[in-house]
Prior knowledge:
Blueprint: H1 10-20, H2 28-57, H3 65-114, H4 117-122, H5 125-167, H6 169-216, H7 218-223, H8 227-277, H9 285-326, E1 349-357, E2 363-372, E3 377-381, H10 388-395, E4 403-408, E5 411-412, H11 418-424, E6 425-428, H12 439-443, H13 452-461, H14 465-469, H15 488-502, E7 506-510, H16 518-532, E8 536-540, H17 544-548, E9 552-557, E10 560-565, H18 567-573, H19 576-586
Parallel strand pairs: 3-8, 3-9, 6-7, 7-8
Antiparallel strand pairs: 1-2, 1-4, 4-5, 9-10
Helix pairs in contact: 1-9, 2-3, 2-5, 2-9, 3-5, 3-9, 5-6, 5-9, 6-8, 6-9, 8-9, 15-16, 18-19
Amino acid sequence: xxxxxxxxxxxxxxxxxxxxxxxxxxxxxxxxxxxxxxxxxxxxxxxxxxxxxxxxxxxxxxxxxxxxxxxxxxxxxxxxxxxxxxxxxxxxxxxxxxxxxxxxxxxxxxxxxxxxxxxxxxxxxxxxxxxxxxxxxxxxxxxxxxxxxxxxxxxxxxxxxxxxxxxxxxxxxxxxxxxxxxxxxxxxxxxxxxxxxxxxxxxxxxxxxxxxxxxxxxxxxxxxxxxxxxxxxxxxxxxxxxxxxxxxxxxxxxxxxxxxxxxxxxxxxxxxxxxxxxxxxxxxxxxxxxxxxxxxxxxxxxxxxxxxxxxxxxxxxxxxxxxxxxxxxxxxxxxxxxxxxxxxxxxxxxxxxxxxxxxxxxxxxxxxxxxxxxxxxxxxxxxxxxxxxxxxxxxxxxxxxxxxxxxxxxxxxxxxxxxxxxxxxxxxxxxxxxxxxxxxxxxxxxxxxxxxxxxxxxxxxxxxxxxxxxxxxxxxxxxxxxxxxxxxxxxxxxxxxxxxxxxxxxxxxxxxxxxxxxxxxxxxxxxxxxxxxxxxxxxxxxxxxxxxxxxxxxxxxxxxxxxxxxxxxxxxxxxxxxxxxxxxxxxxxxxxx
Length: 593
């Protein structure tokens, strides 16, 4: 299960973001230079105003109109250059952030897909979707606007204070003191705001999870008349999200309002102290006016930085959660280039002293030793919780054993590269998952390069052409989300054709006919017979009639392999299998899951 990421400083998280998405750094130097040029041009205006006031307007010889026009022209050019440079920096940063975050979104999604089935199932679906969508969206919002604001604001504050110091160190000291005190206040607010935004991201994930479950589980909700309970649950999640967002928004608004108070206080202080010092300290009318311009240029970025801070904290919270996903170790890793491919031809399956335990419980499989020869048809039976499905998932490396070794074709399964493993070993679950696409597109998940003719041929080879042509649009019929437009049996038919077209050498089925309508059961059984012919097959048998048709039966009880052998031999042994078969034949067994 993906645990919440450990606390990570925003600065460190940003460094990690640059490492995970190098495109974010691309052209950053030029962007910073454009930002610096734009900022410098903005600061030309106060200097020009001071010169215009002292040298042209208040000159002893009177107002020099030509000088005023000349300096005004310089100020206008500076404003235009500042606007163009700022715009260029904004566009460059926007392109870099969009590309970088797209790269990070794909990396996060890919990392989730490399996790084991157990890991993904243990996490809330809404929380996982939140990582790839909402969390990255907050970072995008910050970088598209807040990134430039942060660069501009920081450089503008530094340059403004430098020019102030040149004009009057006394007034500059006053401003720096005020800014420093305000910075301490902002730093205190920042820590509280960071925690508040972390809570908001958690509440958003909770809401997405509750909404997703409510929509996916709509049939069950209506079947049991649980509409009001479901609405109450969703309402509770949304109310918690609202309260978290409201408290965070109110706190951020208070921080932004404090910037307004600071702006008024520092302006009044500069005017008062400047008039008090006067000409005796070399503070002319032009210098005081320039100072007011500089204070305005100083206050404006500080206000902007305070506003950006709120956005930055939200982005930092989202970034930390995304990095938490990327940093989660892969529990079933692909050996990659260091791995090997399975040898051609039918493959045997061998378990050697295999033990498996789920994270939250006791051992599910204990000391399992069994070899399944290539081409053999094996049924796995046992009561619910005996370890049947776990055995099947270990054989396909959807899970990793805690101890022992699994061999495919004599090769340790953990050394087989995933492309080779997935092309040679197919797993058909009890309820085949279909994507919101056409029948053909769902079948192509078994082999993406399959043509329409090959897909149609796969249905024909499994004797399912009559069923396919009976669909509204044949192979082009849209199956709906999760295959909702088809019945359970029809979804299984498509899943079987998907496995067939992949042409695997080892086939593992969590029996496909355990919960289907009788009208399709014969078609399913015939399709399965064709599918497993000539292949090594492991079928988790929920109906013992499947075991009767197998070459060998493996009987599990409380995680141990207690019996194995052909159906008739095990019946004659009068052991555990015989008891299960007797219960099934009498129609009294309800424990076969």
